[in-house]
């Protein structure tokens, strides 16, 4: 170990702006020829010399560390993702799960499988992504049930051939300890057609505003067959209104992941997308108006997509966002906290990437931020319904934000 440190320090003494390129060529050669140990030592010297401005050495480290078991700087690794095509794919070897990062966490599992009659046949539905919000005396949670399962290679498996992707829902009232007080099936209707592939509303996520519980969800427009957003009023244990289909403000064939949020004055806003950060109002005709790009896309933009609606905490608005690696089968999902300033709705900070329990497909639709804890509702492989409760200070320390 002492000899290795001496070699690294000797290389550091030799390094100049004129010799750094030569060192990189040697590090790359070592990595490509399987000389991982010496490559790691030389790479460490390069990282120390020009760590913040030269991502080449950080990239080499991201590969060498797999073989040498060296530690990863997760914040530095995140900066690689927009610049190196395989960085996100490789991150699955280093991704950290909250279930292991924060030993104090609680996980509450509401998963179940039910059968429902769909016209002339009986189908099987697995509980999937839930959405949770705070309410008087506890929490309100909406649970989606789906009639498919995700296979190990990322395909959908159905009980019956030729069926449509169908979503049904159940509302749960939970007490402060997350025990179920009441539950009932909930109809989330939409003006749809039996001919479309996606039946019902996908990924309903809840948001309290002005005494009502609003929701966003994904629907298939029967007129255009485009996937777009629907929204309505979710009454939980009472009948709901029909989901109103929103047109894409930019003529896109797929719209997903819009998020409700409040600004500092309590006005209802919609985060249309996070990169570039686009904040707007929702008009009376159910379209987006006053589209305003609040901040340009940065060089290290991760192409984040919204997961949860915004949760106001003090003078901030917190979100869980996600990005997915399309080259993995099944897709690998990663999550990140994004914090906006509530007065300006501009970027303030974000966390490093994380997973909940480590499964490839995880999705989070619910977030509650309290003084002492953070509550998140999520699914794994579209086949479970869980709530994770994490001490807020421990969460922020573990994820560096």
In terms of DSSP E residues, the strand content is 35-45%
Are there runs of 5+ residues with pLDDT below 50, and where?
none
What is the general shape? Answer: globular
Number of helical segments? 8
| CATH class type of the largest domain | Mainly Beta
Q: Do you know the CATH architecture of the largest domain?
A: 5 Propeller
- How far apart are the termini? 33 Å
State the secondary-structure class: alpha+beta
Q: For the report, how would you describe the main beta sheet?
A: 6 strands, mixed
Mean pLDDT over the full residue set: 89
CATH superfamily of the largest domain: Glycosyl hydrolase domain, family 43
Query: What is the total tally of β strands?
Result: 25
User: How many domains comprise the coordinates?
Assistant: 2
Q: What is the helix fraction of residues, given as a range?
A: 10-25%
| Annotated CATH topology of the largest domain | Tachylectin-2, Chain A
Defining key terms:
401 residues; alpha+beta; 2 domains; six-stranded mixed β-sheet; five-stranded antiparallel β-sheet; 25 strands
Report what the structure shows.
The protein has 401 residues and is of the alpha+beta class. The protein folds into two domains: 70 residues, no CATH class; 301 residues, 5 Propeller (Tachylectin-2, Chain A), CATH 2.115.10.20. Helices cover 19% and strands 40% of the residues. It contains eight helices and 25 strands. Strands 2, 3, 4, 7, 8 and 9 form a six-stranded mixed sheet that branches. Strands 18, 19, 20, 21 and 22 form a five-stranded antiparallel sheet that branches. A four-stranded antiparallel sheet has the order 1-25-24-23. β16 and β17 form a beta hairpin. The radius of gyration is 23 Å and the shape is globular. The protein starts with a helix and ends with a helix. The model has no long low-confidence stretch (mean pLDDT 89).
